[in-house]
Specification:
The chain is of the alpha+beta class and 212 residues long. Helix content is 21%, strand content 38%. The strands form two sheets. Strands 1, 2, 3, 4, 5, 6, 7, 8, 9, 10, 11, 12 and 15 form a 13-stranded antiparallel sheet that branches. Strands 13-14 form a two-stranded antiparallel ribbon. InterPro entries: DUF6593.
Length: 212
Amino acid sequence: MSSSANAIGSSSVAVTYTFTSYDPWDTQLIPDTSLDEFPAYTVNSVQKRQKLFGRFKTDGDSYNTVTTITDDEDVLIASLVWNENLPDTVIYHGQPISINNWMHRPLLDASKRTFQDEKGRKYEWRNIQKYRRMELYAEDKPEESIIRFLPANKDFKTGEITPSKLILTERAAEIYELVIVSFLFLEKTRRRKEKEAERLASVAFNRSQRAW
């Protein structure tokens, strides 16, 4: 299906998407094939006013960041409304739903998220923290991942940056739109939590330095 000769485990790769930007909420995903089966995607995030009292502007108006995913024909695929104090809201196929209800987290493992496709088949995203990498596993193919995310990497000797890539096997290609949407929204959540953890660690360090 693709000119790529790469493989994930024993599975052949159907398509590899390359990110044009480091941030998953403002980027393009470019496929390594010219087949119409796999479109390019544009991810864009903007602040939009959320009116709290009817149609008119009030002092209570607030702003939410909204991330949209469109295909290469500018068709809206999905949206994500960022929320500060509540879980983000996913809008996919026109239906708004909390991201925690769209992708469930096992009670004893915060590094995983599960979801189902339209046929009821189950999938599990796993955060491989050691390598800063997300992988997707299908219930009917548990022995190896069907998607692998390779984060951007910089060669400090040459300064060359290898962009992030999302590698889909033929099994993942069966639901490529769903897995791309779920990855982008989950990766956004993961990075926000990562940045918040870094901020809190920095605050704690500065306080400890002042204590000396």
